[in-house]
## 1
Amino acid sequence: MNNNKYLETAIKSAKIAGEKVLSLYKKIDKISQKNKNLRDIVSEVDNICDRKIKNLILSKFPNHSFLSEESGLYNKNSNYLWIIDPLDGTVNYTKGIKICSISISLKYKNDFILGVIYNPFANDIYYASKNDGAFLNGDKILVSNNKKLNNSLFIAAFSSEKKDNDIKEYKKFRKINTNSLGVLRLGSAAYSLGLLSEGSIDGFWAEKAKIWDIAAGICIVEEAGGTVISKHFSKNKISIIAGNKNITNKLNKELKLI
Amino acid sequence: MKKKILIFGAGAIGRGFIAPLFYNKKYEIYFADIDEKLINSLNSAKKYLVGVTEKNNYLKKEIIFEKAFNLKKDKINFSNFDIAFSCVGPSNCYKNIDYYKKCKILISCENDIDTVDKIKELTSNKNIFFGIPDVITSNTAPRDFLKLDKLSLISEKGILVVEKNKFNFPFPIKAVSKEFLLKHWICKLYIHNAPHAVAAYLGNLKKLKFIHDAMENKKINKIVKGCINEITEGLIITNTVDKSFAKYYMNKELIRFSNKKLFDPISRVAREPLRKLGKKNRLVRAISVGMFCKKKPINCAKGIMAAINYYDINDEESKHMRLLINNFGKRYILEKVCGFEDNEPLIKFCLNQKI
């Protein structure tokens, strides 16, 4: 485990945030709209978890930079950048649906070298560090080896941005949904990438997703033997397709996303 | 014409046990491995020494073989071999699927009966059978052996039990019916694998090197004996195995663990603790059958806790386990790895054991 000290801290942070997510479940009413987008909401839990994670990580690595969905960029001009989503799936969480996750990743220069995704309700932790493999609760995991789209199951993550041309996105969704075992939309991109890494689903795509939703998942999927192709739109906005090499290429051919 | 035997994995079982079974019996022996250093050493020597334990001594056997193949580099025509044995470890055997597809007959000696169905499914090769090496071999040897030959290993005489198939196995290999093989496997899984692992995990906690060292420690000896008794009694009470066979197996194992001539390394027996703590694996199966015996299976529970406390810097799984314990606690391993339900009394029962 090459990045052991970082991994240890990331797992510890995820665990601490997870405890908050559990203890405040159904106890928080205060949610607010972050911007014009209906689905872009923030709960008090997001902010509490964000503080917990940030405090722990920066107490261990004070010279690292830190980017979080809730608190933005804390720039120390370091080669190391922690990218955090303290609660991915806030809408689910506030509605009492237990599909959400804490997503923590570490980027070194241009590489995602570590990823941790923790679903506190299932008490499942996915983690990976570069060149060391991907794990779920300590068990090594691999992406599925399914080669055909028509017997594959997918998850798609829609951008929370309100767009006039989203009809194209729905068309793509419909096309894959009709020609496969189906396309799910879970409401937590990070957790979806965890499921992809353990081979429960066969492919995933997200159009103009936020980097903190998928950064940890990219490292985990790749370490689980998967392929991730991506296209950046702005600093923190990215489209990705992920799965095993075959599925990723076939999906991209159909979706023409990247 | 001599029959050709291919052994995947030139480690303790493959080199120390399977090869000697076919030696001097009109067979050509070949190895296939990925350890380049080992392959080179084997190919320059073309022979090695096996010390077979006897009562107070070793019977020295010099094994001469044809070749050791490098699976990463050599082109091998797998269909040229009359039979092949997989002895690479249950975690590694699926990496060899492309080779196993082409084997005429493959015997999985992987200490896990599930490997047979999985390999069959992945290869579409119907000629995959299970083999139980009822033996302890060591991938190292005492100094005087190593002085003679760096490649030497130590093995018990042992027996190989395989499911009957079209290959005509030489004596002393036992080709048996599926039913008898299953009975043997149940005893191996419960009465050998679990207490053997328990001895290793407890020995590791005392920083001992070999299983026989662990068995010499009075406290460990008591726990291992207690554990094997709990398991055997459970198997008898549930009519899983008949009493005489279970008792024979239990006594055989106790003598085996204490064999000072075996040099059975604790690090080898204890490796991959997360796999061994898995809900379908030896330690959890042991305590589940131990629940049927008259007394509470405290020794099986102590074994589980010893495994949870296992740490070896060279063992990746033990490092992962430590990482999870440091952050989530030992209960997490019992729930997520052993598969005990949340708040199941077994969790408290295990956590309360002092080791």
## 2
Amino acid sequence: MNPVTNLPEKSKLALEALHQVLDPEIGLNVVDLGLIYRLDFDEEKKELFCTMTLTTSFCPMGESITFGVLQALEACFPGYAVHVGLSFDPPWSQDLISGEGLQFLNR
Amino acid sequence: MFGVPVSSVAQKTTSHKVVLPFYGYAAASLFAAALLILANSAAFTGHYFHPRILAITHILALGWATMIILGASHQLVPILVEGSLYSEKLAMASFILAGLGIPLLSYGFYYFEMGWPAKWGGRLVVLAILCYLINLFKSISRGKQDNVHALFVFTAGLWLFITAFFGLVLVYNFTYTLLSEDTLHYLPLHAHTGILGWFLLLVMGVASRLIPMFLISKYRNPRLLWLIYLLINTALLGFFFLYLSTVLINLIFIPALMVLAAVFLFIYYCYRAYQARLRKRVDPQVRISLFSVGLLALPWMLLLILIGLLLRNGGEQTSLALAYGFLVFFGWITAIILGMTFKTLPFIVWNKTYHHLAGIGRTPNPKDLFHDGIFRVMVLAYLAGLIFFTAGILAVQLFLLQAGAVLLLGTAALYNWNVFKLLFHKKPVT
């Protein structure tokens, strides 16, 4: 599932960068795992808001994953202030895993 | 659908400083217990009420299994209840109290010194469990989610407290006549409160959440888990009532059958979760955990045979009783811990060491932080040791017992190697 965004072109770049951020337990990237919900760019203020979720709200790897997302986006968009926040509405479910993600899990 | 604004950054999980000491202590206890099993193999040819066997059982039950479960549950309870741990200080207090109490208690049993070592050991263990229980209650009551898994864990904690408190009463019963019968008479009650109330409920409560999570399985069946919960608790209360009522003792097979039914329902639950998994390749750590679920049925079937023989022939079936106890502690409990240690500990260590590199640098995979080859050899040594030692108990053969004990000591050594490799892991200098 593609995340909601106001700038599809920039969002593509962000998603490419986020493909490098893995859930260490599953070994799958956060995009194909369906953890990224929204990418909102504010071009005037040079800000990027990333709304994401975790597979469970008290995921022991949660801090590492959100930190990884923040660092990957900061590296991709230098000069932007990046904000990463969590949403559990809707909660993550297996239905959010992409086709590529399912293929990876089927290997 | 996804228009809901951001809530917050990721919640802080329990600090590794609180959790890791429990893992180290448990690993050392497993090694100590395995060493004592080898040194005292001959004791396993006689009655289970033997000072050395009592000491080994308490090192395994408290030092090994309970310590690692307490450590892991300080990390896992926040996942189950979706809220943070109430107090890390209480968690540390329970580690220190139990860490001091367990060797004292074990020393007391080993030399059958029921004076201050056993009494102080017992008191400290009871206090440690009280700290854990308060922490658990406070964490669950302020958590966001009331669920069946959390109830399993809390009820298990209550049974653990009852087990430990009753155990302390039994220690006092050696010196003062507190109970109407001698301590040996109450041993089955003490043992089964711990085995069923603490270990079985806790393992089922946590595994029913973790196994589907690790398999990425869609299967959920809270109603089935409620049924399992009711069966085990009713069986345990029924066992207490029937055991203490000398008239109805012949009905004691009913609670045993209820536990067996709960075990088979739990095996069914895990099987359905396995069938509905999205992750097709199951790693060796989850495989050994699933194996332990299957292994659950073995001691309870043995228990039914034991009850049948006791009711028909009377007298004591010492070998069967010993094999039953051994299969509980060195069978399913040890098997699930061997698997789950390497499914939890590498991630705690990874989080501690590589958290700041996430998303920007190359980091090792958590499962690469321990030696996979050693893990596999450990599993083989464990399976062979379990078979040899159980056969040795049943056949009353010292040679088989010694061969099994050597293999179990090897298992413990390999386990310790990997656990301490993880605990002392440092980021390589680049």
